[in-house]
Write a structure and sequence with these properties.
86 residues; alpha+beta; 4-stranded antiparallel sheet; 2 helices; 4 strands; 47% strand
Length: 86
């Protein structure tokens, strides 16, 4: 029982989805922003915005935007915005 319980607590599901693409050529720069919440209720000072990801990567012309969502048994949710461009 203990092994099954630990395995369930450590298991998670992650999915990455494309959000947007522009006609700009795909650049070599990548920027990421992240937000983590607990029990889908507690989100304190989190920012997973496109603007923050672009600024973090030094991107002025955005090519693609992807969203990665990770969920650990509904207890911990993470959203990560991934921006590519020049």
């Amino acid at each position: 029982f203990l092994i099954v319980s630990v395995a369930l607590l450590l298991s998670s599901c992650a999915i990455t989805l494309p959000v947007n693409a522009t006609s700009n050529e795909v650049g070599s720069k990548v920027g990421m922003s992240k937000a983590t919440g607990y029990l889908n209720v507690i989100w304190i000072d989190q920012d997973a915005s496109i603007q923050k990801a672009a600024k973090q990567g030094g991107i002025t012309k955005i090519s693609t935007v992807d969203l990665k969502q990770t969920n650990m048994l509904g207890i911990i949710q993470t959203y990560e915005c991934i921006v590519t461009g020049n």
